[in-house]
Amino acid sequence: MTETQQDTDGLTTMTLGEDYPEIRESVRAICANYPGEYWRKLDANDEYAEEFVTELSQSGFLGALIPEAYGGSGLPIRAGGAILEEIHASGGNAYACHAQMYMMGTMLRHGSEEQKQRYLPGIASGDIRFQAFGVTEPTTGSDTTQLKTRAVREGDHYVVNGQKIWTSRAHKSDLMTLLVRTTPADQVKKRSDGLSVLLVDMKEAVGNGIELRPIDAMVNHQTNEVFIDNLKVPVENLIGEEGRGFRYILDGMNAERVLVASESLGDCRYFIKRATDYANERVIFGRPIGQNQGIQFPIARAYAEWKAADLMVRAAAALFEAGQPCGEEANTAKLLASEAAWNAAEACMQTFGGFAAAKEFDIERKWRDCRLGRIAPISTNLILGYIGQHVLGMPKSY
Ligand SMILES: Cc1cc2nc3c(=O)[nH]c(=O)nc-3n(C[C@H](O)[C@H](O)[C@H](O)COP(=O)(O)OP(=O)(O)OC[C@H]3O[C@@H](n4cnc5c(N)ncnc54)[C@H](O)[C@@H]3O)c2cc1C
């Protein structure tokens, strides 16, 4: 039985062990062409993983979740997770391209047939890069419903003014999903009303209403400040109905949680493997350092945490695929996987001792990258707030 099925009792089932082995094998083969040295160089020079993203797109992996009718492979979300997990387990970084996998869901569920026909086949083939997601703003941060970037309709287009921050890959993407306010905050009934999703053609917009300023960041996310000044966006680029944009973005959140949690699982595997190998090889005081419980136990604990998080990610993916509510599982999966990855990173760093700080070992780079999982795309506290309120029924805390 696959993840997409329910048995006769209506129970959702999930697979154990290495599922999608052929997909994993093919992704591993691609990743083998991009060793630590490749990622290290990009990191040092703050460069985008052009060759890697091109090869992954041309091999069809970034279109894995797009339905076959639009040129993709029509695979379940768990397969997308397996792809991202393998990239991270290989020592690479899927942040360069992961947004495409979850953003296309917004277009698929809420876009018009004309929009889907226009963009999805190109996204599936890799000809169109759909990598930029403009949500976060400097003054409102996690409080998304209060964002201020304003779009005013004038005839057959919107005129957009405002600012976004941390918009990753905006300069490397052909399209950006932009969340804007179409009704002023003081005129809406609910906080979540009045926002809309626009598709921005970045080739036309940059230098013509959009100015990008790269952020010098701890991680190589190719991330930007986006200044929007009288940007014109055709009305035909509105996704779904005006004013319902926040719901559309929320709709895609469970998929996003499952996919980024899968990346954290890949990080767990990477760190546990590197730490275990080093603990067995490195001999100090006449014995392998892994013989010391102070080194062995944190790695063993990280392993146990990884396995538990892995089960929760599988559960969330299976429910998502079966069309069942999965907010609780997807959020819990994201929380547990990002924390398991961080604990594995810490155990690995401690195991490598001073050599962890030497860039050629790749540990410090992966350690920096993986830390971000507890902050973006959503921070741990906001997930705890979700569980406290929506799962446990305590008062809303934000
Ligand atoms: C490298 C990088 C790449 C990113 N890429 C993108 C992107 O492509 N597109 C995009 O839109 N955004 C992106 N982000 C933004 C990211 O989603 C936000 O940084 C994140 O959502 C947190 O928002 P903030 O930084 O404004 O923190 P704030 O909202 O200012 O919060 C700061 C801290 O306070 C905590 N906090 C705030 N309110 C509460 C509360 N009520 N209860 C408890 N704790 C609270 C938060 O959990 C957090 O720990 C990126 C960020 C980074 C660092």
Walk me through the structure.
- With 398 residues, this protein is an alpha+beta fold.
- It folds into three domains: 21-129, Butyryl-Coa Dehydrogenase, subunit A, domain 1 (Orthogonal Bundle), CATH 1.10.540.10; 131-243, Butyryl-CoA Dehydrogenase, subunit A, domain 2, CATH 2.40.110.10; 250-391, Butyryl-CoA Dehydrogenase, subunit A, domain 3 (Up-down Bundle), CATH 1.20.140.
- 46% of the residues lie in helices and 15% in strands.
- The chain has 13 helices and ten strands.
- It has helices at 21-31, 36-45, 50-58, 77-89, 99-110, 113-125, 202-205, 245-251, 253-281, 293-321, 327-352, 363-371, 380-391; strands spanning 130-134, 150-154, 157-168, 175-181, 195-201, 210-214, 223-234, 238-239, 283-284, 287-288.
- A four-stranded mixed sheet has the order 1-4-5-8.
- Helix 1 packs parallel to helix 4 and helix 4 packs parallel to helix 9 (253-281).
- Bound molecules: flavin-adenine dinucleotide.
- Flavin-adenine dinucleotide binds next to strand 1, strand 3 and helix 13.
- Flavin-adenine dinucleotide (FAD) is lined by residues 133-136, 141-142, 166-168, 217, 219, 221, 223, 372, 375-379, 381-382, 385, 397-398.
